[in-house]
Amino acid sequence: MSKPFIFSTFMRKEFALYSREYATDQVSIVGEDRLNKTQGGVFLFLHFGSFFLSGVSLISKLGLKYTAIASTENFKIMNQEECKFWKEVHKISNQLYSKEMFLSSDAKTSEILEYLGQGNFLGSALDVAEIGKKHKFGSFTFLHSKIYLQTSPGRLARMAKVPLYGMTIVYNQKTNTHRLHITGPYDSKEVETAIQNILTDMEPLVRHNIDQLFHDVFHLFSLTQLKNHMIAPSPKKKIVSPLAPIKSLKSELPLNFSPRYESQVTSWHPHRDFAYNLIKEHKPKNIVELGVHYGDSYFTFCQACEELELNAMLYGVDHWKGDDQSGYYKEDVFEEVNLYNQEFHSENSTLLRMNFYEASQEFENSTIDLLHIDGSHDYESVQNDFESWLPKMSKGGKVLIHDILVKREDFGVKRFWEEISKAYETQSHLKGFGLGIVNC
User: Fold this and answer.
1) Are strands 435-439 and 425-429 parallel, antiparallel or unpaired?
2) Which residues contact 406 (CB under 8 A, 6 or more apart)?
3) Would the N or C end of the chain have less CB density within 10 A of its end CB?
4) Closest by alpha carbon to 139, among 155, 150, 125?
5) What is the average pLDDT score of the chain?
6) Pairing state of beta strands 66-70 and 121-125?
7) Which fold has domain 269-439?
8) Residues 6+ apart with CB under 8 A from 160
9) Distance in angstroms (rounded) separating the CA atoms of residues 6 and 215
10) pLDDT tens digits, residue range 35-53?
11) In terms of DSSP bridges, do strands 322-323 and 327-328 run parallel, antiparallel, or are they unpaired?
């Protein structure tokens, strides 16, 4: 297995030739009885066999609503002929699938979750690494080798509360037919376990048809090859330099930040790049967020610290019940945030499920370097949060206050911000609902 596997010529041509009629006539399906056709789910596959044909077969033979996640980033490094070929394949697939494919570079997580929530099915390769973006990879055993595959497609199923399925299509050159194998269902609550089970079930099929492997996962997904794509806990933490006040912030710094976590609540999304730059320049050691909700801002902080290899500890404080302003919500919000935190940030992130006063007793004075206030938004609550937590701030620390531009009768953040801006050195990020920065 020292030299890369090359996809067979006769298989490659089929990528641009298939149709729903071809799928109906030439594909047989094994494991149809495993599917809950009304619940929806996520099919995971390796780039093996005519994997685009798999989705068309699910539509034409089983009547499923199906599309896939695709990437166009690698087009940038292909020659003109390769690029033209794959663009044609994507065009054909978009015409045959139930809806156009989600592009991993553009699609919002909320859109994919809405699609899955309607009982539809989604296909995704386990091993796509987009050029220039960071990914979370897991280590798995496959054909007696250790390979590294993306786990994010599996997390989509978990977030949507739908099952995972394995999907492998094998071509028989003698009969000119394909056999699509469906395995599962697998519990999406345990993503890495499910992926390992999918790979184990795929193993016999791939082993006996190794010439149909589209590229060599053993080579492409080695640690060496992944170094520019991989985010993993670093065994050696860098010691950050002493903290110092920031005189000014450049909010338009060039950056490589690409959020891995995104909920349907978009109010904090305009501030993510700014927050990444703030952490990059400020290098906080202790970060506390008051009001986590779905976690968009909190996991931005977590991811920034991870990618910048900061020796930082993060604490998210919330009772996860909601309030009159943001609405009340069920236990599943905390469960999803907690699961994501445990899977990706358990080394340096702690969720404190309690009220803000109780949490304040857990911290010594002058120990917090970055505090984000985004809890209740009435004037008295924001004022109390700021004043009760201010003694906890280190010299040169930063307090972020969200929603400083919101004009609502039940919101007092704007008024409070205008008042403290006269007493403290402050900055404002005037995008979205507005983010205020107080220099301590």
Assistant:
1) antiparallel
2) 377, 413, 414, 433, 434
3) N
4) 150
5) 83
6) parallel
7) Rossmann fold (3.40.50)
8) 40, 42, 112, 113, 116, 117, 188
9) 6
10) 999 999 999 988 888 888 8
11) antiparallel
